[in-house]
Design brief:
Elements lengths: L4 E4 L2 E4 L8 H10 L12 E10 L2 E9 L4 E7 L9 H13 L4 H5 L4 H6 L5 H8 L5 H14 L3 E6 L4 H13 L5 E12 L2 E10 L4 E3 L14 E3 L2 H4 L10 H14 L5 E7 L5 E8 L7 E6 L2 E7 H7 L4 H8 L6 E4 L5 H15 L4
Parallel strand pairs: 5-6, 6-7
Antiparallel strand pairs: 1-2, 3-4, 4-5, 7-8, 8-9, 10-11, 11-12, 12-13, 13-14, 14-15
Helix pairs in contact: 11-12
């Protein structure tokens, strides 16, 4: 029997787990500490919000792995009748609603309110605050790629699991596509010596036992290969609508001009699946860029990185924001109206970034 055992005298007995007063209490525990969940592959989770509306319902907790894979977390107490079968169809319905979402539409739609409730103005701000080592360019492209392909992590968290639910999850684990990971987790709380102790365990349906470490092989996402120069990105223009070809060519030409500045290199990269192409004038001393350009299956993503502006080109922020108003430079926020005046201002920002500092 899995759980906490205590000894009185010479006898060992299983301790009785405390009951959660309601599902909101368990949901709050998970939202405040998402990394207490023992998930397959031991990913690091970044909280995006609670009660996120997708389709006809609300996801209890929405998070994302540092690799860019979304995690849909649904919380139930065993006494809830939905904790047997309905919870499975519920979490699959959320995944179907999330599949194919555009990153910007998600951020400014279903995620906007939940992000604000936990204190963030944008998705990228939440990512960098909780996991500062994440590269926002790679993360944004990977997140969009997972949305496009429906490659999600589905997590069911309960205080106890029925054999019926365990059997259903075991079946789904055996037949679902590799891009979909399903975790079944129990969380129990005990009081030991006046201190509350949480015991989260991942249920492994294949072996009908609980384990805090996955028995499944860890799948590690390949890092996007990088190339010097714009050629790899330029070749992707064939995937773009003909009316947008000139815009992409103008951006490549602009990036080439910026790369002529001392201390700036032009870097291209391609996602492992080959559908996201990135181009960035990168400050070699910082290994970072103020601007990133992406072609995601023919759609342009033009982003300005606020943290980079604040540290490398702070004097350029006011002018650039005047040109993109009413938007502000955000942590990876996209810009749609790309004018020649804006590109000139961004080139000056790079000039500021490479200028000798007193």
């Amino acid at each position: 029997m899995a759980g906490i055992w205590t000894r009185t005298g010479t006898d060992w007995k299983p301790a009785a787990a405390q009951s959660f007063r309601d599902e909101a209490a368990l949901q709050e525990m998970v939202a405040e500490n998402p990394n207490l969940l023992p998930l397959a592959g031991s990913p690091q989770l970044i909280l995006l919000g609670r009660e996120v509306r997708l389709g006809n319902g609300k996801v209890d907790v929405l998070a994302v792995e540092t690799s860019g894979r979304p995690a849909i977390i649904e919380v139930k107490l065993a006494r809830n009748s939905e904790a047997r079968r309905a919870v499975v169809s519920q979490v699959l319905a959320y995944a179907a609603s999330l599949h194919g979402f555009d990153l910007e539409s998600l951020e400014h739609g279903p995620l906007q309110g939940p992000l604000e409730k936990i204190g963030y103005a944008s998705l990228a701000e939440a990512v960098q605050d909780q996991e500062s080592a994440v590269d926002l360019d790679d993360f944004g492209a990977s997140f969009q790629e997972h949305l496009d392909n429906g490659q999600f992590r589905l997590v069911l968290v309960l205080d106890d699991v029925s054999s019926e639910l365990e059997s259903i999850i075991g079946y789904l684990e055996n037949v679902t596509i590799p891009g979909l990971t399903i975790d079944l987790v129990t969380v129990r709380v005990y009081e030991v010596g006046g201190v509350q102790v949480a015991l989260p365990q991942r249920i492994s349906p294949d072996s009908s036992r609980s384990t805090a470490v996955s028995d499944r092989p860890v799948s590690r996402k390949s890092r996007a290969p990088t190339y010097d120069g714009p050629d790899a990105f330029a070749e992707s223009i064939q995937r773009v609508k003909e009316q947008d070809h000139q815009l992409f060519r103008n951006l490549i030409e602009w990036a080439n001009v910026v790369a002529e500045l001392p201390g700036v290199a032009l870097i291209s990269s391609i996602s492992p699946t080959g559908n996201v192409f990135n181009l960035q004038p990168r400050l070699t001393a910082e290994n970072a860029g103020l601007v990133s350009i992406a072609n995601n299956d023919g759609r342009l993503y033009f982003r300005l990185e606020r943290r980079k502006f604040e540290s490398l080109a702070p004097d350029s922020i006011e002018r650039v924001e005047r040109l993109i108003a009413p938007k502000e430079i955000g942590h990876g926020n996209e810009v749609r109206n790309i004018t020649s005046e804006l590109l000139a201002a961004l080139k000056q920002a790079y000039e500021e970034a490479v200028a000798p500092r007193s």
